[in-house]
Write a structure and sequence with these properties.
Elements: E1 2-6, E2 9-13, E3 23-25, E4 28-30, H1 40-50, H2 63-66, H3 114-123, H4 132-140, H5 143-151, H6 159-170, H7 179-182, H8 187-197, E5 216-217, H9 226-229, H10 231-243, H11 259-262, E6 273-274, H12 296-304, H13 324-335, H14 357-367
Antiparallel strand pairs: 1-2, 3-4, 5-6
Helix pairs in contact: 1-5, 1-6, 3-6, 8-13, 12-13
Length: about 375
């Protein structure tokens, strides 16, 4: 057994197959995710809310519009659709394992609780554009919701309860039976893990049970200029940048990232983004905050060359000099972090009505 240092981290590497529960880094441990206690009634309510279009301003989209179960609760397009009338300027991140995060969104701007994240996603004008006072009244007119809120212990439908119920549902969206967690990795994936924690040094940023250091870095990901070519995307970007106090945003041709939090005068923080989790990658392509990398093979090749070109790129990124075989092994390890697809009836709302407005229509017909 030997000691290897990389990027200030001291890792203990076994000569044979690795014990996934025993590899630690300064800011977390690489291993199985901890269990989460879930309130079934609250989660069932949150599930119905997650798939209900009435939670958006014009009742056209739901949370699941951009976080689709069949795509790992992410979206298959490079850039997310956004609210009708505009489009989003970033890739939809998966909400699987969101409960295990301490910071959320690509720019890391929310770091208090999933309650606050839920509120932000519902009310932001380029996302779901919901006036929560109107949402509350919509929910009160649905007898199914009235009963579900009561059963969940919230009393009558309220905005505060929505902000608690959706996060309760998100607790159910956790990785299940990933080969990394079950200890059933292939020989290639085991070699890839040794590279991940050793020569490739991926663990420097992708540490902890959720494989993220919860920090922001600039890795030189190329800009997605569709943000600025597409008027509908650009208008959403302008609204966001203006609200977040980004300087000279009308002339900006790059995503500021976490600069919105720190506003460094020399702009050395431009283009820094939150380290994403590496779990469930098999389902969530394309990759990066702007969808600019299509496959896991391309992701590994990108980092093997030392990332992209950016004046603010982190000094942590250096060429890895991995052989083709080593890159293939690393990809197999990344695949081993994905478990059972979360697309069964356990995770998708199986409502009685294809259009939830029919619930209200049927209720009124009976009442009258």
């Amino acid at each position: 057994m030997g000691i290897r240092k990389f990027g200030g981290l001291c890792l203990v590497l076994a000569a044979g197959a690795l014990n996934t529960a025993a590899i630690s880094a300064d800011n977390g441990q690489i291993g199985a995710l901890p269990d989460v206690k879930v309130d079934a009634a609250k989660a069932e309510l949150g599930k119905r809310l997650f798939f209900d279009t009435r939670l958006s301003g014009d009742a056209a989209i739901s949370c699941a519009t951009c976080h689709q179960p069949e795509h790992g609760f992410a979206h298959p397009d490079k850039l997310s659709p956004g609210y009708p009338g505009n489009k989003h300027f970033r890739n939809s991140p998966t909400v699987i394992n969101a409960v295990h995060k301490k910071r959320w969104l690509h720019d890391s701007r929310l770091g208090t609780s999933l309650n606050d994240v839920t509120r932000g996603m519902l009310t932001e004008d380029y996302l779901m554009n919901m006036d929560m006072r109107i949402m509350q009244e919509r929910l009160k007119q649905d007898p199914v919701y009235v009963e579900m809120f009561k059963t969940a212990g919230y009393g009558e439908p309220s905005n505060g309860a929505v902000r608690k119920a959706i996060p309760e549902y998100l607790k159910t969206l956790t990785s299940k039976n990933a080969p990394f967690d079950t200890g059933k990795m292939s020989a290639s994936a085991q070699r890839g893990q040794q590279l991940f924690t050793g020569k490739a040094g991926c663990v420097t940023c992708h540490s902890g049970a959720n494989f993220t250091d919860q920090e922001v870095h600039n890795t030189g990901v190329p800009e997605n200029f569709d943000i600025f070519r597409d008027v509908e995307r650009h208008q959403a970007f302008i609204a966001y940048a203006s609200f977040m106090g980004v300087e000279n945003y009308m002339n900006l041709k790059r995503d500021a990232g976490a600069h919105i939090l720190t506003h460094e005068a020399d702009r050395s923080d431009m283009g820094t983004f939150l380290t994403p989790s590496l779990r469930e990658l098999v389902y969530t392509a394309p990759y990066m905050h702007n969808g600019m990398i299509d496959t896991l093979d391309d992701v590994v090749a990108f980092y093997n060359q030392g990332g992209g070109v950016d004046q603010n790129k982190s000094e942590l990124l250096q060429p890895l000099n991995l052989s083709n075989k080593e890159q293939a092994d690393l990809v197999e390890f990344l695949k081993s972090l994905s478990g059972d697809p979360l697309t069964s009836a356990d995770y998708v709302w199986q409502g009685q009505y294809p259009n939830e407005y029919e619930v209200i229509a049927d209720w009124r017909a009976v009442k009258n």
